[in-house]
Amino acid sequence: MSKSTAIPRHIAIVMDGNGRWASKRFLPRLGGHKKGVDALRKCVSHAMFRGVRVLTLFAFSSENWNRPAEEVSGLMHLLAVVLAREVPSLHAEGVRLHFVGERKGLSGKVQAGFDEAEVLTANNRNLILNICFNYGGRWDIVQAASSLAAKGEPITESSLHAAMGMAHVSDPDLIIRTGGEYRISNFLLWQAAYAELYFTPALWPDFSSTELDQAMADYARRERRFGKTSEQLKSLSGSQVSV
Ligand code: FPP
User: Fold this and answer.
1) Structural domain total, the chain
2) Residue 146 domain-assigned (yes or no)
């Protein structure tokens, strides 16, 4: 296959720009995060509608603890509100939730909320929604390597992959970053190896269904070679295709 005509199976998103969205409106930064939750909710429904199987969202990074204390506590409070409000409706839509990241350091209430949401939605099959929270790509590589080392197991590509927080899903096909920055910011460092990257200036609260469709249309025009040549892919098309 020379072009990625298929819908990406797994989309991952760096939801950047909440703060700037709020500043433009003379609102506190938390106002941007609240609007960001609305965008997140619409994005989940639209991705599912388009046939995406896995959606991974970067909600709070290992480095976000360095933000002003007021913003960090505001985000933690927002998280509790969002869990209570959105988990039942996500469950009703057949979404399976996973929280990926370091649980240690989060409040008991948040940890219990994550556990309950994962148990409640464990049999849902319409979409896997990974929320990366207190997550960093470097943290995940280190914790996976440490757990293998502690068991005396050899570190290989497959053993490391299996010990990582994202072991339950295939690698992302498409990584979107909103907010106009061109960087990966410690997101899915291991899993991004062959992802197609898409950057948009849209601030996350403005990221609409149309924006998601545009990113997917752009993805559909990409040639995914996985180390092969374009000619090899062309000769393979029509026969067996492995991507
Ligand atoms: C980046 O925008 C966004 C975040 C650090 C948080 C993303 C969170 C949400 C979309 C809400 C859902 C999450 C929770 C915790 C309920 P930024 O603040 O860095 O924006 P800026 O670059 O414009 O300052």
Assistant:
1) 1
2) no
- Across 78-107, b (16+ Cβ under 10 Å) vs e yields bbeebbeebbeebbeeebbbbbbbeeeebe
Domain CATH number, residue 65: 3.40.1180.10
Please state the pTM of the whole predicted model: 0.93
For ligand 1, whether the C-beta of 78 sits within 6 Å is yes
Query: Which ligand 1 atom is at minimum distance from the Cα of 61?
Result: 5
Contact 17, 179 (CB under 8 A): yes
CA distance 134 to 165: 12
Question: Quick check: is 87 in a domain?
Answer: yes
pLDDT in tens, 32-64: 999 999 999 999 999 999 999 999 999 999 999
What tokens does 152 get?
């005396």
Question: Measuring CA to CA, which residue among 68, 101, 79 is closest to residue 33?
Answer: 79
Give distance in angstroms: CA of 123 to centre of ligand 1: 29
Is 166 contained in some domain? Answer: no
